[in-house]
Amino acid sequence: MWAIINHLPIGAGVTSVTLLRGDLHVAFAGSVEALVGINTKLLSCTEDSEDSPVRRWPRYHVDVRVAADVRSGGNTITQRGWGTDISEGGLAVYLACELVLGEEIDMELALPYSTIPIRVTGAVRNRDGFKYGIEFTLITSDQQAMIVRACSALALLQ
Description:
Layout: H1 2-6, E1 14-20, E2 23-28, E3 60-72, E4 75-86, E5 90-95, E6 104-110, E7 117-128, E8 131-138, H2 141-157
Antiparallel strand pairs: 1-2, 3-4, 3-6, 4-5, 5-8, 6-7, 7-8
């Protein structure tokens, strides 16, 4: 992707380049004519800067309870929440507390089609109100294998 960015002409007004579902999307300010003559193989080019962010793993809808240990002022408080989307790399979770981007939390959750709850550490990567995007940051290989199995089973059903 960086090679393509480096070949864009100065003044093209490119604001972002993302890879989404195998297609390269270029968002820019200005007209489409500004990109005419660029010698690259763009699979998709849009003027809309609202492109979805790049996903490393597919997401799967889940309904799982989550117990999150949140550090606050030297104390650890357990917040109950609900996980709604899972991938091999993280979880979207609703928690009724204020978390900041980059903050790490410990979570315990029962994966779909598993009887054993797992405990993982994750970092807040994004938020929308009280819905947080948590990236798994401290996870064992056994836990990762359990998450991959759950995602594989969910892929067959969704």
